[in-house]
Model the fold of this input.
Amino acid sequence: MTTLLRHSCPATPINGARTRSIRSFFARAYGLWRTRRALEGLSGAQLEDVGVTQAEADREARRPVWDVPANWHD
Done:
């Protein structure tokens, strides 16, 4: 069995809220990147099933990962 331990230096305390915020941002960004890659790989019939045109799918897949939906902004 593997045991992972987390050690932090007392001289540089970690701000818990900030760490969660950064971790949350990267988790959401990675999820968005994976979704856009999956969208890029859908066939024409699959895109039609979800109501997205090929042009819309291509445009969305080309967006950079930092170009996030407006509801992500606080």
